[in-house]
Each structure stands twice: as structure tokens, then as C-alpha cells.
Amino acid sequence: MSRVTATASCTAHAAMVEATGEVVSQVLLVRRVAWLAALAGDVSARLVAVRWTAADLDVLAGGVGLDGRVLPSKGWMALRRLGWNVGPRSGVHVCDRVLRCAQEQAARLLRLALHRRRLVAAIVATWPHKPGVRTGAEWEALRALLPDGVTAAEVRNRSRQIAAYRDQHDAFPAHLTELEEPPNVAAQIVLAAADRQLLTLQRTGDDGARLRVRLPLVEWPASARDWAWHVLPVALPPTVPPQARLCAPTLRVAKGRVRVDLPFQIPVGFAPATGHVIGCGFDWGLNTLLTGVAGRLADGRVVCDGRPLVYDASGVSAKLHRLRAEREHLTAKIKHQQRLLARITVADPRHATLSSACQALGVEHERLCARIRNLNKALAWSAARWAVDQAVAAGATVLYLEDLATLEARGRRGRANSWLSGQVRGRIIEAIRHLAAKHAIAVVTVPARGTSRYCPRCGTGTSVLRHCPAPNRLAERGWRWAYCPACGLSCDRDWAAAERILARGLLGQHATRTHRSTGARTIATIVEGNVARARRTRKPTRAARRARRTRTDLHPRPAARDRAKNRPTPKRPTRTPAANSRNNPMTSSRVPDRRTVPAPPPASGGQRPAGHAPKPGRHQPHRTGHVRNSHHRTGFHHAKATPVLTFIEHGSGPGPGHACLSCLIPSRNYREFKTLCGAARHDT
Questions:
Q1: Same structural domain for residues 323 and 472?
Q2: CA-CA to 62 of 20 to 30 Å: which in 163, 202, 206, 245?
Q3: Mind giving me the DSSP string for 529-563?
Q4: Could you tell me what percent of the chain has a pLDDT over 70?
Q5: Which domain range does residue 43 map to?
Q6: Which residue windows does the record flag with biased composition (Basic and acidic residues) (predicted)?
């Protein structure tokens, strides 16, 4: 039994001074926490600035202290072993535990710099002959020097940074310290390095905790009298289970409130990397956010239940695209006003008006950014919960996803690049890993190249799919539907890609690799195989169950129908002038709610009839990104997902369909199935 760590963000609204019992208001509490974060941040910033040299980074990368012992994992202890100590400013009294927290934050920043330094050194050592274009041999040489877990996006961004430095200085940077300035220190206090002399944390119930921490009473404390113990009641969110073990938090100030980033650990079962029989594969689709399938491995072949799992968030995507367009519009206005402010002086009477307008636009811009972040977070966790629920219902022990490192819009236009960059895929993967760990389900990424291009039914990786708009428009070019000319497969493009992802995962699970530090599992070897579909057992309808009880025939034979029908079918009454009479009724048709054609403009005064006349010069509103059926779905509550169904029928026994589970011969119809399968009796 292992433990998984997560973080819950809580808010402390008020506090109480332990010695005097004085109730501290939220405004005063925010001020004192900000003073504590500023004291620790000042020490961290000065420590990072002093040690931001090539020689000091080399000593830290060596991993050996001054006494010859290996540096410990805790950052503040490693810096003290190296003798890198920076005290507070003169006249300021800070306890040793606050200095520990400051050194811990500085050590984390310097250790992150070691990763960036190795990445920059690898790119400079294997700089391509043609800038911006790397050959296959150059990529192989670069991957041999790169650290583990580096994505193509990081390589591209660092290459642009190095190219800009080379254009400016006409030389490559010799070290990371020449390429970058010392990193900025966040205004927060990391209490993970503290002990009982600075804080205590105790749980008071299933939904509450008691945080006891020492805070300064003035901005620059001169002695120990300027420090006091404060008791902060913290309300825990529902995501923190009662059996979770709380860890030391991080305090920061955000939007006028004290935020408590509280890590907690929960016990989870072990998820093996191999030996999986039932699994789920999900594709980052163009039609929907997530499209998946559930299947099992039988005799070296993958069999799916023939039912796609769809999470459609078109309404949320439409709202996100509108918010992004509005944010870009506000950014353009802010830049324009900043250019106007740069051309006038402070004494100009227009300066105050422009400054206030620019400040108001900045506040609105921050509000829009926060709204987009919150909506992305809600969408990511909703999609992750849905995917994990599907896996639990299907009895799957593994989830296969596409590797994000290979999901790049290469050779496409800027619109496709912006559409891909605006997705929440990275956050969804982290949420899926967190939620799947609670159910002991492994999450593995597989290569994404070719999943939407080749046919999953053929399974050889050579049958190229033909992408078209719809199944009845196979001759046209499109992106939604997939058709295989070799085997006749015709299905949704994302559905076919999800089947190939599942096949690559189950067939290549022996090549699963686990990252040493992060624990992320991935499969780099591509193993191709065909996928068969065995449909689920259909439950009988209510009419069929009633007919079974009463032993009636729902579909009589043609001869019986002819004998029962001894009179001609009555014709529908036609419209006559005397339709209003009782003896000659007529059928009435429902009046449409809206005119099918626009009403003509009125020739004289008075109101115009119902309907909308086309107005000259009016264009349709521009819509950014790909949105499907978004005219009536404009909110997060309209997101549609496939309901969660159990996988018992498919997991325990065969179901009806045109595939035999004993010989696993796929077919397109029942006649072809009987021809291909020579057995006398099969469970289909």
C-alpha cells in the first residue's frame, strides 16, 4: 500500500492571537502573512542572486558537500552543507525556522536551474547546420544528451531563446547564467521546512483543520516580542478525505485573501505496469474532447465491445473561444493605450484619463484570465472523472492515452497551432493520474503518431484511412469520418484512433517504462495489431417482455395480416370549404413558431408582420476555433458525455453481433459471418 500526494487550496478568513485571545480581522491577517512572505522572499532572492554563477551551479550539480558527504534531498539542509547561508537584513529579527523556509525555496529554484542548464548545453552542443531544421541524425544526437521527460515544445522554446541570444551577441551562450537572469522569487512562505517551533497543524474534524503559526506583528520585527502565535481555522474542501494525512502547507496572499495550499496524502493500491487484460483507450479528438473505447486482450488480439465512449464539451469550448477572443481584444486595447501614454507627459491633462482607462482595462483583463483558468480547471476535472468512471465500470485495470510530446501541429497554419495550445490536455492527464491512482488503475501514454491515419481493423499499419465529411460523402475531403478502402471500415475518426491507442497499449505493455522521479509510465515501442468488435447484449424492450409473458406475436406473418385486414385503409381527409362543419372535419397542421422565409418590409406605417427581414450590411458573428453545434450549448452544464455502463456482459461472456468470440473472425454482415466461420454453432 502506497500513498499519493495531492494539494487542496483553502482560504483562511480570520485568525486569533493565542496569547491574548484577540480576534484578527481578515485585512490584518492578510497584512501579517504578507509581511512573513516578504521576509522569507527577501532572504531567498538575495541567496539566489549571490549563487547565480556557473561555478556555484557546478558545485550544486556535483551533489557533494564540503564534508565529502552526499547532499540530502531537503533543499535547506543541502545549502547548509555547502555553507550557503544568507541572514536577514541588519536590525531585523527572524527566527531560524523562517530562514529554513527561505533556504528551501531558494534551493528549489537553483535545482530547477540545473535542469534548464543541461537542456541548454545539449541544444548548443548539437546545434543544427540549418537553423530551425534538424535532420534525423541531429535529432538522435540531441535526444542522447537531453534529460528525461523533455518535450519537443521545451526544445523548440529553448532553441528560439538561444537563437535570439546568438543574433544579439553573435555567439552562443557559454552557460545558463549568461542566457538568463536570476529567477524571480514568489511571494509565499514554504512551511515544509519548518517544525513545531514555527507551526503546528491539527485536524479538527472531517471538514476542518487548525493551523497554528507564528506571524510578525510589524513589517520589520526587531525582536522576538514582535512575533506572536496565531490560530487559523481552515475549512477543508470535500476533495480531502477523512483518512488523509495533512502535510505542512504553503501560505500566500492572493486577491486580498490568505490562501493555504495544503498538501495531503491518501493511501492507494499498487497499479502494476504489465499483465493487463481489460483496458480503456482515449483519444484527444477533433470532434469531441475525449473519445474512448473499452476492450480486452484475448489470445493475442484486442476485442472491443463496439460502443464508443464520448465526452462532448462543445458548449464549453465555444465559451472558452469567446472568452479568449475578448481577452485578445482587451490586450490590443491595453497596448494601444500604453503607446498613447508613452507619447505624452505626466503634465498633460489627458494622461490621468488614459491612465485610469488603462487600469480599468487591466482589471477586466485579469478577471477574464481568472475566468478562463477556472473554466479550464472545471472542464479538466470533469473529463478526468468521467474517464476514470468509465474505466471502473468496465473493470479495466489500465488507461491508455496519447503522448503529449508528439501532439504538435507541424506544418499547419497558425489557427491549428492556437487551437492545440488552447486545450487543457496536460491538466486532464494530471487529473486522470490522480483519480486513477485512488482506484489502483495504471495510466500509460502511447505514441500518437499514425493513430488517426491507419485502419484499426486491418492492424498492419499500412492501410491508410480515407477521411471524409460523412459516410455518404466518401468522395469528398473532410476530417470527421474515416473509411478504409481495404476492409470497408466506416466509423468516426476519433473512434478508430481510440481503438488503435488501446491496441498499441495492450499489445505493447511489455515495453512499459516508468519514470524514476515522476512515476509516469509510457510506451515508446509501437506494436500494431487488428481490433475486433463484439457488440454488447441488447436488453429486450418492454413490448418484447410483455409479448414473452402473454405469448403474443408482435410481428404476425404476412398471410395473417392479410386475413385480418378485410377492408381498405381509410384515406386522410382532404381540405374542403365546409371544413368548419361538424360533419366534415379536416386535419389541422401545426403553425410554425417562426416564419420559414423573412417577411417583406411594410409598405406603409404600422407594425411589420412576424419574422426577421434581412438587414443590409450585417455579417454573421465571427467564431474562433472549431465548435460543433454550439448555437444552443453555451455553458459548462450542457457538456454531454456517454453514460457509464458496466462491462460485465462483455467481460463475462459473448454478446450478439457479427463476430465470433471463439475464432475472432470479424465480418461486415451476418451472411459474410456465416461464410467465414465454418463452425456449426457459435455464440455471436
A1: yes
A2: 163
A3: --EEE-PPPPPPPHHHHHHHHHT--SS--HHHHHH
A4: 76
A5: 25-188
A6: 550-565
Q: Does 639 reside within a domain?
A: no
Beta-carbon neighbour count of residue 2 at 10 Å? 12
Q: What are phi and psi for residue 289, nearest 5 degrees? A: -70, -45
Q: Are residues 283 and 184 part of one domain? A: no
Torsion angles phi and psi, residue 328, rounded to 5: -65, -35
Q: Please report the DSSP string for 15-82 in residue order.
A: EEETTT-PEEPHHHHHHHHHHHHHHHHHHHHHHHHHT-SHHHHHHHHHTB-TTSPBPPSSHHHHHHHH
Which residues have C-beta within 8 Å of that of residue 367, sequence separation ≥ 6? Answer: none
298 and 149 share one domain: no
Of 127, 160, 188, the residue at which a domain comes to its end is: 188
- Residues 457 and 531: their CA atoms lie apart, in Å, by 5
Total of domains in the chain: 2
> 310 and 453: one domain?
yes
Same domain, 371 and 486: yes
Encode pLDDT of 184-220 as tens digits.
999 999 999 999 999 999 999 888 899 999 999 999 9
CB 286 within 8 A of CB 279: no
Residue 469, amino acid: P
* Phi, psi dihedrals of residue 231, rounded to the nearest 5°: -105, 120
The C-alpha R_g of the chain, in whole angstroms, comes to: 33
CA distance 384 to 425: 10
Torsion angles phi and psi, residue 284, rounded to 5 = -80, 95
pTM of the model: 0.68
Pair (182, 309) in one structural domain: no
Taking every pair of C-alpha atoms in the chain, what is the biggest distance, in angstroms? 112
Q: Which of 533, 563, 590 is the last residue of a domain?
A: 533
Any domain includes 67: yes
User: H or E stretch including 204?
Assistant: strand 199-205
Asked if residue 542 is part of any domain, the answer here is no
| pLDDT band for position 229 (cuts 50, 70, 90) | very high
Phi, psi of 24, deg, nearest 5: -95, 130
What is the band of 676 on the pLDDT scale with cuts at 50, 70, 90?
A: very low
Identify residue 219 by its one-letter amino acid code. E
- Whole-angstrom Cα distance, residue 79 to residue 87? 13
Smallest Cα–Cα separation from 449: which of 533, 528, 530, 506?
528
Side-chain-side CA neighbours of 674 within 13 Å: the count stands at: 4
Query: Residue 30 is placed in which grid cell?
Result: 492578510
Kindly report the CA angle at 445 between 439 and 448, in degrees rounded to 5? 145
Would you say residue 1 lies in a domain? no
- Write down the H helix ranges in 551-635: 558-564
- How remote is the C-alpha of 199 from its chain's centroid? 35
Q: What is the pLDDT of residue 489?
A: 85
Three-state SS annotation for 70-93: ECCCCHHHHHHHHCCCCCCCCCCC
Q: How far is it, in rounded angstroms, from Cα 529 to Cα 458?
A: 8
Q: Are residues 164 and 305 in the same domain?
A: no
Under DSSP, the state recorded for 182 is P
What are the percentages of helix, strand and coil residues in the chain, rounded to 5? 40, 20, 45
